[in-house]
Amino acid sequence: MTTKPKLCYFRGRGRMESIRWLLAAAGVEFEEEFIETTEQYEKLQKDGRLLFGQVPMVEIDGMVLTQTRAILSYLAAKYDLYGKDLKETVRINMYADGTLDLMMMTALAAFKPPEEKEENLTLIVKKAKTRYFPAFEKILNDHGEDFLVGNKFSWADIQLLEAILMVEELDASVLSDFPLLKAFKARISNIPTIKKFLQPGSPRKPPPDSHYVEVVRGILQF
Ligand SMILES: N[C@@H](CCC(=O)N[C@@H](CS)C(=O)NCC(=O)O)C(=O)O
């Protein structure tokens, strides 16, 4: 019997959410340990399990992994979501890095002071509309295929859907000028493992609220 991967992070999206998405899309069940107190976080540090003293941390295949992008690329390779050759893999990396940048801006916005938050969220929607979504719309238009790379479902598709849904939480009409992305969203959301992850009660986490921000600030003491 193989043991389930174990994820260690706060009880929220942050840098762990894309890892949850990738595992769920691959149809892999996982366990989660939520860090709720400073003592718990300090114990992880003392035990020497966090290479650079940071989370996300994932225990999988007898390894203790940290660094979000390293974890994601390991999972993408392991679950055959990483292209058929180096040229497809580098494109998947490029697209995934782009959506990760967009999503990190959104995740960090929650921690901005209230007076800067609104302006920051407006800027994120603007960047999504003018920088990221036009690029993905063009990719889909140029090759006319259902998926971003190699006409096969990959990590890049999973993360683009995650990013679209995240920006739609800020502006529900954000896809109005992107018909191919709208169709992409419907198509990818309908993949059975993803459909399941989008149902209430799945390990998917809600957008960060003020309570979550307070808890994380308390634990990390910033
Ligand atoms: N490059 C790392 C950054 C990890 C990171 O900054 N994690 C935050 C929580 S989201 C953390 O542990 N901060 C505590 C610290 O840096 O001391 C990654 O992508 O995993």
From TrEMBL:
Residues 3-83 form the GST N-terminal domain. The keyword Transferase applies. Keywords: Transferase. Its EC number is 2.5.1.18. Residues 85-209 form the GST C-terminal domain. It comes from the Eukaryota. InterPro entries: Glutathione-S-Trfase_C-like, Glutathione-S-Trfase_C_sf, Glutathione_S-Trfase, Glutathione_S-Trfase_N, GST_alpha, GST_C, GST_superfamily, Thioredoxin-like_sf. This is Glutathione S-transferase.
